[in-house]
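Each lists chain and fold; for instance:
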Amino acid sequence: MAIGLLAWRRFGVLALILLLSGCFFNHGRNLPRAEAALTYSAQNPLQPDDFTLCRDHGCATEQRVSLSPGEWAEITAPLRTPALDAAAERAWIAQAAARFELAVGPKAGTAGDVGGTLTGVGEGGQQDCVDEAVTTTRFLLMLEKDGLLRHHEVSTPVHRAWIPGEITHLTATVVELEGNQGRYAIDTWFHGNGHVAEVVGIEAWLDGWEPPVWRFRATGERSDLRKLASDEDERLTSQSR
């Protein structure tokens, strides 16, 4: 009996570690939600002044959001000047994703979203990896439609699973148009709202990649948007991999 109890305790610790390091959801319910949300986006052209954002885990809530032309210009400022190469463009995509979250957070009720999934349990306006992957993909599609992606095209989200059907992680992706034509994760799930997205080659991501430091706290409200636009140190935190 003692051995059995010890085994269950070890299993419990392992399960907790997995839950904290992954996006926990049931494939049978949430992946179809993500697919349906992105299918709708493909069939209905996305506009910055009229789109929806996923929140409350598994895209349970679709919050309608509208950005003014000025807000969209501020969000996309890093990409208005053509990047010299694909790696530079990925770095600017990561920055633009942070600006996007800062701008839409107060409008969609996700300004206080924290990194990870279980870290924000019980708090409103939280986003798991399904919410993040769908919303980031929609954002990337709007960038693409606006002609701001010159070295990449938007691809479908990719997921990885440690325990099939239970624990998984989902990310938005882009594909490089030249060079090695590699696929890259644009992952906004690891950190709180408004943090620079993580950009990593999809092979490493599928192997279980995660950032060495997770920033659980949200960066701030929309008032931080202009500070972010001129913060050189913040720009250096995003590395193209």
Observations:
- Residues 86-108 form the longest helix (23 residues).
- The mean pLDDT is 76.
- The two ends are 49 Å apart (CA to CA).
- The beta strands are 23-24, 51-55, 61-65, 152-163, 167-176, 183-187, 198-201.
